[in-house]
Amino acid sequence: MHPTLHHLRGLIFGTGRLKDPEDADHLAVAREAAAAGLWFHTAEEYGKGAVFATLKNAFGDRPAARPRLIAKVGGKSADLLRRTVDSTLRGLGIERLDIAQVCGGPEAETARPGGELYDTMKLLREQGKVDAYLLDIFHNGSTKAIPGVREQLYDGVIFYWNVVNREVDNDLYDLIQSTGTPIVSRRGLGGGPEAFVGPPSPEQARALLDDLYAQSGCSDRMTFRMRFALNLPGCLGTIAATQSPKHLQRLLCDAELAEALPVEIHNAIHAAQRNWFADKGQA
Q1: Which tens digits make up the pLDDT trace of 75-90?
Q2: Which H helix or E strand runs over 40?
Q3: In terms of pTM, does the model score above 0.90?
């Protein structure tokens, strides 16, 4: 595992809702999340740069308090990667990205040694601009991502994974687990029908999860989702977003107490996710 990833554990603070650089709550929640030791996840596209402005306002005069972070960058070409890394550094007022989330479904050929993307990723590391890289896997990108995982072209992967959504198919999931590829999950506390990727209808998933929730002994659904998300095999951490200091405290409390779900509940969710992909004609 890349040394930087050894420091990434548990709850990761999603910044996408911090779109008002002058809002006292937005500044406070950013500072409180950093003070709690959370890593941040961010992107220049969030709020069309407004989130970056919020983070600069929150930490511009206190560089020692800045959090470590994951930032989305473009991966469709070497030039786009270079430009988005540089614009992210400028936008945040920092000199180095701890982790760059490489988006856009980059072709494996360009990320292999000798490829243009590979050379640019290597150069950005040597220049001290990026420490580590995660391959973003989004929607139906499993097939395209297989070479990058099999050949370990990136330091890890990142994708949506929660009680109703595992956004990699069974073949890629098994490859990730068998290669020991580190995972970061997005929308780990999701669970609404908008995130649904499973069987013929969201109602079927909801009925199953309602039953498992009832059996779990969890006090509420947030606790149920947190206990699942923070105990996923091979997963270093999960991203959760809020703009409310009060909600942040709830997330921190739940994360600290997030023991694994009963093994039969945990296994039943994983089995259901495998079956959902099989029902869709995927391995």
Answers
A1: 999 999 999 999 999 9
A2: strand 39-42
A3: yes
